[in-house]
Write a structure and sequence with these properties.
By secondary structure, the protein is an alpha/beta fold. The protein contains 24 helices and 14 strands. Helix content is 58%, strand content 9%.
Length: 612
Amino acid sequence: MEHGSGSLGSLILVVTISFLVPILLYQLRLRVVPVVVAEIAAGLLIGKSGFNLVGHDPWVELLSLLGFIYLMFLSGVEIDFHTFVKKDKSSKGSFQPLSVAIFVFLGIFMLAGILSFVLVTLGLVERAFLMTLIIGTISLGVVVPVLKERKLLSTSYGQILLLVAVLADLFTMILLAFYVSFLSRNMSKLLLLLLFFLLVIFIYVLVKRFSKGKVFKILGESSIQFGTRAIFTLILAIVFLSESLGVENILGAFLAGIIVSLLRPKKEFIHQLESFGYGFLIPIFFVMVGAKLELKYLFADVKVLLTIPLLLVVMFLSKMIPMLFLKKWFKWREVLSSGILLSSTLSLVIAAATLALDLHIIGESLHGALILVAILSCLLFPVLFNKLAPKPYVRKKMISIIGLNHISMPVAQDFIAEDVYRIQVFTASGSDISDTHLDHKDPAYIQHIPVLDETALKQHGAFDADIIVMATMDDTFNIQLANKIRKDEPDKRLLVRIEAPESQGEMAGTGVEVFSTLFAARTVLRALIDSPGALKLITEEEGTIFEVHIHHLPYRTTLLRQLPRLENLLILRIYRGQSYLIPHGNTEIRLGDRLLISGNTEQIEAFREIVS
């Protein structure tokens, strides 16, 4: 089947290769090799440096470009803007990831400038500032998939690496645009770049206002996938705007991702976007990176071969030395692996080298050396990172319990003993806790604050938790605080203790979960009389019941019997939206489902780690 001058044959080959690569890595047990590296290597095999099976094909070229644009978009979405202000309390001392990232980035940029002057002194290059941009850049398109594959993006360590890569990529793109405009003596390009940023800010204001409107809310809940349509419209609109104003399209795609991240979409929606990108478009881009490279011409020049190792060392040193600053909070293994991963370069080095060649700033030999260094850095450094990096970290959910009494304290003690959640209990300094059966010294997870109000709780980080439980005996306080939190953070899960029946009715349908001791006692007594076996199943210590959210599935269409680690677990219910399903082996499991599971705590946590 042909369309114009293109053929589906090359596209089918590239898609097939992207499908086979993960299977081969699994069968050969090459887990230290990131998938993106294997895709580039596979592209080398079928491309111009190998069997030359993929020619210049409009289908593949277009989808490869869309894959790169979508990768930059997802890179912007991955930025967690909460880390700009949120401090890490689990490390030695507290820090702000954004502040650390800015400090490290400045160190990388200054060191890149120094190393560039060294290369100028050695007579290898002529333009120090251009080499500073090339040495200082980091491939966001490689860093993000590797961190995601290692499940490190949600950690402070991963967010620091992501932010450093973002700053390096973003500022390199902007400075390269300014530098090219300066060399071409075309100041109109600078004005167009400033106009582009102003228009992006204007688009963000419009999108934010529209996303909160009634129309978006109604259509977003329908079955037409309106949110996905809106996202692709946003991406293509900003990319078209960037190209029209002479700005790099990847910068437009990245800023579109930042806009989406600032809107704080639901995790289920982000998973939908990622499954399309990492499942189809992005692998095509990485395969084509390798397919386009012609190694035989690069190895023909001896000077290129001598320059390549030096450039690799220079790029590594420019990242590794500033990353030593992280030793204040992280171990040597993490610091070393971070410097190695951030040494990966790709698209911007190729773009900068191509622009420099077009402007006759560098020669053919240095141009070829820079491109080969970019490819080698993507093949070498991510593999070394996987070899040295810490094991994937599964962050425990944090629960803030506001109010210390005979109801909340036993629950907190149970969770602490099971070590499933991170627990913090907040109580006023003068409260009477004699009935909670505590020792003379309070546990570390109990925080005494001067007064139990919104300001004090916010200052002590009570609202940074994943789940907030208002468990004081004051219904009015619980309701008022819940309404304020729900207004500021509508996606936060809130559990509110309300004893008065009339107040319970008022809170129905507001998005909070209400509980009361009276209702709980009545339910337990009824179950004890009517269904003692069911109550025993829920309360026995060896057969704990947990709810597990499905955020990752091994196959696009996954049946219950295909889920891993279910041998000694019992699935009681499958909750989907506001309804539930009776589980059986052929029940289709979907992203966003909530499984009610009975079994051993360790086995349930092992299962949760796979599907979360």
